[in-house]
Protein: Zinc-ribbon domain-containing protein
Amino acid sequence: MTSTLSPTLGGTKHADTQLYVTATHKVRSTSGKPPFAWVPYGVQHAWPAGSRKTLCGEWTSGWTVFWERSFSATPHDACPACVEASLPEASRRRLDPALRRTA
Structure:
């Protein structure tokens, strides 16, 4: 996995639950002033630091980690399976009838 910046581990309260954006491709941003930053191109996946897979189960070998970007469900190119996997269990239970408890 290649990275665009090194992570800042000090000061993160929940370092074990932090999800970063990772993608198979990267391009240079054309907005703002040079030097242009690398940005994800294509589907943005959620990646917990130290894992070999994304939340949806994709192997990340050779993928770029964008340490400065926390994973968010709001971008239109966020992986739907990663979005669902990043939700709290109570939310997933409400969305998936198979996970609901029978009363």
